[in-house]
Amino acid sequence: MKEIFFRFITIHPLNDHPILGWALGFIWLVMVGNCVASIRQQPMEIRMRLIWMLVVAFVPIFGMLAYLGYCFLKADYGFLKFVLGPPKHIQAANNAHLKLPTKK
Description:
Layout: H1 2-9, H2 18-41, H3 46-58, H4 60-74, H5 80-84, H6 88-97
């Protein structure tokens, strides 16, 4: 069990085949291409686009994670009001105005 764990950590699988490296490289290029296509569609200056493309392309995993964080911060969350409904304080205010009159 210890040997399997050390092989996993050192990325030395038992069935090491060159096609695995090529497949991982291809997957990596597809992911970088996807990020670059997303960056090109962002409404920002050309200089910022170039900086993001360089960060994504040359900083392997952390560049994509940084861009993911940027996208989460700049995202339009307007669609969530249809999924989650209005906030609780607005619902409470609307419900207060809709109370039916009671007989005394």
